[in-house]
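Field reference: sequence -> structure
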Amino acid sequence: MDYTTPPRAPWAGGQGRPIAELVDVLGGEVFDHPEEHGFGECDAETMQQLRRARGAPETLVRIYRALPPGLGQINAGDWITLSWEYARQHAMRDDTAAHDWPIVYADVPAWAVLSDGTDLDEYGYAGPPLAGLEDHVVDP
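Structure field:
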């Protein structure tokens, strides 16, 4: 089963900028009015992490990714999110909870999380490969 989807996630050297520089991409109002950016669905966990990372590229943030069972890795160039809830939405495969994918997560420095400024829920990962991540089953 293919779990990669076009288009490509924001990447280093491309259209992506570290979330520590998000204010340079979207302006300072993004922290006061996130609903005016992207699709307006940004949740509290994402905003908390973005505020903590503002101007602090070494600050650790938690990234999430829904994957088929047993893969347990996040690679440079993968789509990621800063929200458990957003990852949970992407873990759902159909109407049967038993078919849902697990979620993996890791704490990484903010410089490794890239945004292209189009969506506050979706980011690209630009750090070293993260392997051996534990599958976390999504509660129905």
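Note: Residues 17-125 form one domain.
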